[in-house]
Amino acid sequence: MTDDGVPPGQATGGGCGCRGVRYTIDGPLRSVTDCHCEPCRRFTGHHLAATQVAVRHIVFDGTETLTWFESGLGVQYGFCGRCGSSLFWRSSERPDMLSITAGTLDPPSGLTTEVALFTAEHGDYHHPEPVAVSHDSSSTTSPACGSS
Questions:
Q1: Is 86 left (phi over 0), alpha (psi -120 to 50) or beta?
Q2: Which residue, 8, 40, 78, 114, could crosslink 35 as a Cys pair with Cβ 3.0–4.6 Å?
Q3: Which residues have C-beta within 8 Å of that of residue 148, sequence separation ≥ 6?
Q4: Is the pLDDT of residue 70 over 70?
């Protein structure tokens, strides 16, 4: 297993709960980043836990139910229009990269959570676990989930 969560020479995949959206990844994945910003909390219902891959390393095996929501500032969230699964995050600032919600990966992912962003914006019901790197304010450059 590499540090990126994808075994050398192997692909991993994932998708939504109803299997209307399926994908295969054949390249390195970034460690998981938790984003607690308000838009990500509203998209997921908690916080966004996402990995990231270069667009050239993801192949969609099914997209008939994939829907994109433009939240503003060049940020889009992808979800399944049938079952409602929160799937993707992308930014017009990094069109070559796609963030994938970690919970949609087929196990085992081999990934770990290493960064938490916008921790000061976490829901008042939640107390984020300490991670290697934590940013508690919106002074972080990009709303996250897609930042490398």
A1: beta
A2: 40
A3: 30, 52, 94, 97
A4: yes
Tokens standing for residue 14: 């994932």
Instruction: Quickly list DSSP for the chain.
Output: --TTSS-TT--EEEE-TTSSEEEEE-S--PPEEEE-SHHHHHHHSS-EEEEEEEGGGEEEEEETTEEEEEEETTEEEEEETTT--EEEEEETT-TTEEEEEGGGBPSP----EEEEE-GGGS-TT--PPP-SEE--STTSSS-STT--
Residue 114 near residue 51, CB atoms below 8 Å: no
Task: Kindly state the tokens that stand for 27.
Answer: 């390249």
Banded pLDDT at 141 (limits 50, 70, 90): very low
In 3D space, the residue among 79, 87, 110 whose CA is nearest the CA of residue 5 turns out to be 110
Q: What six digits make up the tokens of 30?
A: 């970034």
Residue percentage of the chain with pLDDT more than 90: 41
